[in-house]
Amino acid sequence: MAKTKLTKLTKLTKxxxxxxxxGLDNDKTGxxxxxxxxxxxxxxxxxxxxxxxxxQPPVLRPKDG
Amino acid sequence: MAKDKLLRFLRxxxxxYDLSGDAREIGTIGGAPTQVPMTGWSNAVQNFLAGRREYxxxxxxxxLNDTASSGAHSVLxxxxxxxxxxxxxxxxxxxxVGDPAYVMPAMEFSAPTTFNEQAAVLxxxxxxxxxxxxxxxxxxxxxQNGLLSATTNGTSVNNGASSANGGHANLHVTATASGNxxxxxxxxxxxxxxADLITFSADGSAVTSENxxxxxxxxxxxxFQATRTGGTETVACTFVRN
Lengths: 65, 242
What we know:
Largest sheet of chain A: 3 strands, antiparallel
Structural class of chain B: mainly beta
Order of helices and strands of chain A: HEEEEHE
Shape of chain A: globular
Oligomer: heterodimer
Helix content of chain A: 25-40%
Largest sheet of chain B: 16 strands, antiparallel
Distance between the termini of chain B: 20 Å
């Protein structure tokens, strides 16, 4: 939980990269990401990335985390 | 979403088989807690606490159809078998996305054969199966019901809010024509960006059923997704938030 709170306080930047832990669909572009794929904030949006980081269990993790 | 559920639109799936054509009567679809008496000497009235909820479907009666594999007798004649059952309640029509469903990883008990108005019938009871993961809730919704011949993002269902205690889903593959699909339940916080919630092993290549579970947060919106590689599949998917 401590890690989750930390991400909430951290402002995401465009350079931040994440690893999908499950399949993710982005209906806006139609692209689908599978578990293990790398994604960036711009692939979705900051709100969506934060939501997925805070979700329990999380559906993605920081690439360097 | 209304007071419009009739028995004629109840659909009963047991394993990979739709027994609705053989179904004749149903007793009780349960979910009530046991009553634990807690009345003290000085209490003015009898009072209780709620014990464990008792789930199960009792008194499901079907005609003794001995059609190989798919007839009600063929499916139900061997009690003590583990299965997945879904009872889908259509709203004045075939059950569709968002309609209520009673979803259970079930053990079948007691299937005596009797004769009613000359007709041979058997009556089955379904109880939560301890050899599978027993969920905390059985009432959920239909996420998909029908033939799929293309990659499909099912209609989303808005729960009004997210939930925190996980969930479970039944997938029933009732027919296939060289089907090859990736079948999933997905959730979303905004009805636009979707993450996989439950991924089924069943790929639409054979008549079968499967119960999948998930823990933790289930977002406000859920939907069924089938990604097609080839063929067709006829599926029903039901989902429950614990």
